[in-house]
Design brief:
- By secondary structure, the protein is of the alpha/beta class.
- It has two domains: 84 residues, Winged helix-like DNA-binding domain superfamily/Winged helix DNA-binding domain (Arc Repressor Mutant, subunit A); 215 residues, 3-Layer(aba) Sandwich (D-Maltodextrin-Binding Protein, domain 2).
- Helix content is 40%, strand content 22%.
- The protein contains ten helices and 13 strands.
- Strands 3, 4, 5, 6, 7, 10, 11, 12 and 13 form a nine-stranded mixed sheet that branches. A two-stranded antiparallel sheet has the order 1-2.
- Helix 7 links the parallel strand 8 and strand 9.
- Helix 1 packs across helix 2, helix 1 packs across helix 4 and helix 2 crosses helix 3.
- The chain is rod-shaped.
- It starts with a helix and ends with a strand.
- GO terms for molecular function: DNA binding; DNA-binding transcription factor activity.
- It holds the Pfam family HTH_1.
- Its main location: cytoplasm.
Length: 305
Amino acid sequence: MYLGVSHLRCLEALAATGSLTAAAQRLHLTQSALSHQIKGLEQHFGVTLFRRKSRPLNLTPAGERLLSLARDVLPLMEGCEYALERMGHGKTGRLHIAIECHSCFKWLMPTLDSYRESWPEVELDLTQAHSFDPLPALRSGRVDLVITSDPQVDPALVFHPLFSYESLLAVASNHVLAQQEYVRPADLADETLITYPVDPARLDVFSRFLSPAGVQPAAIRRVELTPLIIQLVASGRGVCALPAWALEEYRKGNQLQMLRLGRTGVRATLYAGIRAEDDSADYLSAFLQQASRTCFAQLPDIRQP
């Protein structure tokens, strides 16, 4: 392809200034260099681009056609250059988030609202499309940040701890376990455990409580929505283990009782996973800082990781 951006800039400068001398000064070129570019275009395409004896210079139909292209293309090029420069300095970018934690919406949405005010140029998106196995999507670039409590050792990924939290068991207020201060793994052997539709190995109640004790619940029922899980527990259809912050709003009333998992409780840490190559981006660091501020302002019983 012969036609280049420099040719478009030449035509735009000629049209704007009306003379070769002024156009050359505007482009920081010598007049002979500008004339050489124009003559090269004319000879290559066999056209005349402007009438040389007119003052100011008048473009021919061929020149007008090229000027029209310049006015369409150059603003797009400049806009792209500006965006790339800001991305290179970490001022803007894309932040597509995937969540494993179904109950994270309570703090994630306020975080995104505050973040958007400070970083309006960052393209935000939130998806659950990869929420049950999001790390391959993070590695491949389909998402840019994953909220997870299950970090993996991977040189391509970095996991920043957000906060630690306690998981609690919720039972109906008239449940046989409701009067206990805490439950032992064996207490759940005869229970229906209601969980999110996640592999049990990735749930705290299994990985940190039941499985080490070699205990399995009598049945597992999988439900996606937290309010529905709570309704089922309150009606005696089973028990559930959720982060303390997710259960906080359901403490009011007398339908549920919250119990510790074990005498000392079960705590885990929530992480934000990103690609290692993006770890120094300002807009990602700002999101992590905003998430920390929002969580510690709004969530009960969380601690510094």
